Amino acid sequence: MNIGVFFGSRSPEHEVSIITGELIISELKKLGHTVVPVYLSKEGKWFVSEELGTLKFFTGGGLEEREKYGKIFLDIESSKDKLVFKKNGSTKLTIKGFKRKEYIIDLAFPAFHGRNGEDGTIQGLFEIFNVPYVGCDVTSSAITMDKVLTKLLCERFGIPTADFIYFDLSEWNIRKSELLDNAEKELDWPVFVKPARLGSSIGIAKAKDKKELEFAIEVALKYDDKVLVEKAVENLADITCCVMGGESPKASLIQEAVFGSDLFSYEDKYLEDGGAQLGNAKQKLVIPADIGAELTEEIRRLSVEVFKKFGCSGIARVDFLLDRKSGQYYVGEINTLPGTLYHHLWKASGMEIGEVIKELIKTAEVRHKKKELLINSFESDLLKFANSVKLNMKNDWK
User: Fold this and answer.
1) Which of 205, 265, 301, 331: disulfide with 216, CB 3.0–4.6 Å?
2) Total structural domains in the chain?
3) DSSP states along 105-169
4) Structural domain harbouring 37
5) Domain containing 193 — which CATH number?
6) Model confidence pLDDT, tens digit, residues 97-155
7) Annotated binding residue at 212?
8) 335 labeled binding residue
9) Is 230 annotated as a binding residue?
10) pLDDT tens digits, residue range 158-178?
C-alpha cells in the first residue's frame, strides 16, 4: 500500500508539521510501506518527491532546491479511490529506484498542524476523491480546531470548561471598549487570550488588566480573526490524555506538563531541551500525572467521552486545566493531530510508535469500508420535470 504523508502547509505551525511528517514517514518506512512525501509550502505550493522524506532535507539547505520537485499536478481524471500525482512534462518520477510516470497514493496520512490541514480542509479533499485517510473526519476536525466552537459544545454536552467570552475582528473594531469592560466584568483577572483556530501556544498571552488585555487581543487578531478570552485557572496543573481508536477508543495514561511561566509556551513545547511536545524534555513531563487514582480514572473516562461526542476517530489529544487546590478540572481544547502522535505518552502507556501507526491505519481502513456501505445515489425522475411550471417560473432560466 502506498501511503501519502501530507505535511507543511500555510500555517504558523508549518515547522512543527514538518517534524511530525518526517517522524511518520520514518516509521512508515520501518513498517515496510512505500511512502509518498507530499509537502505544502508556506506559499501554498505543492511538492512531491521521495527526497522530501528526511528531516535533513529541510535542515540542510534542501529547501533551496525544492523547485525541481514542484512540477507536478494532481490528475483529477485518474484520482478515483486514490490520489494520482503526475509530473509535468516528460521527466519521470522515482520511487525506491523504480522509474514511474506518477505517484499513486492509496491511503493518506495527514500530518498538518493548524489551518489548511488540521481544520478539515485536506480531509475534504480526501473525501472528494474517496481516499481512506488517518485521523478525524471533516466535521470533527473543523469543530475541534475552533476553540470557541469546542467550548460552546462542551457547555451543550455538560462538560466542564472555563468561563469565556469571544468575538471577531469586526466586533473588536466597532466596540472595543465594551468588550474590554465585558471581559473584566464577566471573567475578572487574570485571563488568557487565544487565537480561536491556532495551536502550539502561538499568539497566546496572559493578561492581568485592561491594558495587557487590549495588547494581547491585538496580537491574537494578527493570527486569527476570532479571539477567545478565557478565565485563568488558579493553582494550575496542565494535564493531557490521548485517545485512540474507532468505535471503542482507548485512553492513554495522564501526562502533566511542567513549566515555569504563565503558560505552556511554544519554547517549552518545541525548543527548550528538545521540546516537551516532542517527548524529549522529560524533566518537563510527569507521566503518569500525580493527581490521584480516582481523578486519573475520571479524566481518562471523560477523555474518551469527549472523543466520542465530538465524533473523533483515529487519534486525538484532550487537554485539561486542573485547579489542584479545589480539584475542579476543565476541558481546555481538543487536538485531532497531536504533535508527533504523542508517541512518548503512548510509549509510557505500553505502545511503541510503530504499533500506534498500525492502529491508526487499521482504524482508517475500517472507517472507509463502513462508509462504502452507505448509499450514495437516489433514483428520481426530478430532471424529467425540470421544465415544469414550478421549476421554470417566469422562464428566468432554462
Assistant:
1) 205
2) 3
3) ESEEEE---STTTTTSHHHHHHHHTT--BSS--HHHHHHHH-HHHHHHHHHHHT-----EEEEEH
4) 2-133
5) 3.30.1490.20
6) 445 678 999 999 999 988 888 899 999 999 999 999 999 999 999 999 999 999 999 99
7) no
8) yes
9) no
10) 999 999 999 999 999 999 999
